[in-house]
Design brief:
The N and C termini lie far apart (42 Å). This protein has a domain of 47 residues. Helices cover 16% and strands 41% of the residues. By secondary structure, it is an alpha+beta fold. It has a four-stranded antiparallel beta sheet, with helices on one face. The relative contact order is 0.27. It has one helix and four strands; from the N terminus they run ββββα. The longest helix is centred in the last third of the chain and has 14 residues. The radius of gyration is 15 Å and the shape is elongated.
Length: 87
């Protein structure tokens, strides 16, 4: 099975909290990796999401230890919508 990882950057103007996090994360830009696998058995190339990770802390944070935390992409979208409605 063929897999791929795509990386995007999301922007939170305000602190945010995702399910499973112990504390809110600071406002800023965060890298998000989405893992996908090819859907086999169809006549065109299509991908389905199988996982996602957010890089913590925010990109601009210096001197902090970096980590990747697994997230649900739907939870990320809800948090982004909620955050942008605040602005």
């Amino acid at each position: 099975m063929t897999n791929r990882t795509t990386q995007t950057v999301v922007h939170f103007p305000f602190p945010f909290l995702l399910p499973g996090f112990d504390a809110p994360q600071l406002a800023g830009e965060y890298r998000v990796d989405r893992q996908e696998e090819v859907i086999e058995g169809i006549s065109w190339l299509a991908w389905r999401g199988v996982g996602a990770f957010i890089h913590l802390p925010a990109i601009a944070t210096e001197g902090a230890r970096r980590q990747m935390a697994p997230i649900n992409p739907a939870d990320l979208e809800i948090a982004l919508e909620k955050d942008h409605k605040q602005s």
